[in-house]
Fold this protein.
Amino acid sequence: MKKQWLTLHTSTKTYKLNKPIWQFSFNNNFDFGKGWLLSMESYYIKSGDAEIGSVVRNSGNVDISLTKSFLKDRLALRIGGTDLFHTQKEGGISYTESMETQQISTYDSRQFVLTVTYKFNTSRSKYKGTGAGQAEKSRL
C-alpha cells in the first residue's frame, strides 16, 4: 500500500490527494515432479492518488505457463499465456497550476507463447570450493 497526505492548491481548484494505492501480487511455481512445472505471475493495482495526480483505473495482469522437461532437463517445452483476463489497462490524471491532464491507455497485451529450449553443454562443474585463490593470497 502506498499512501500520501497531500492538499494541492492550484489557481483553479484545491485537490485532496489522500486516497491510497493498493497493490497485490501473487507469484508462484508449482513443481509436480517428472519434469512438469506450472508458473503463475499476477498483480492487481487499485486506483488512488500519487504525487500530483491520481490513478483512475484499476489495473492487473495474470500470466500462466506450463513447462515439461525431457532428456534429463536438456529439452524443455513451455506453453503459456499472458494477460489472460485482458486487464492490463492504465489511466491517470495529472494536476498542474492551470489544467488537468487525463490519459487512458488500453493495451493489446494478451498473447499465447510457445517456447522450445535445448541446453547443449550441461556438464556439471568439477570445482569443489576448496583452496581457490590461495596462491594469489600468498603472492600478495
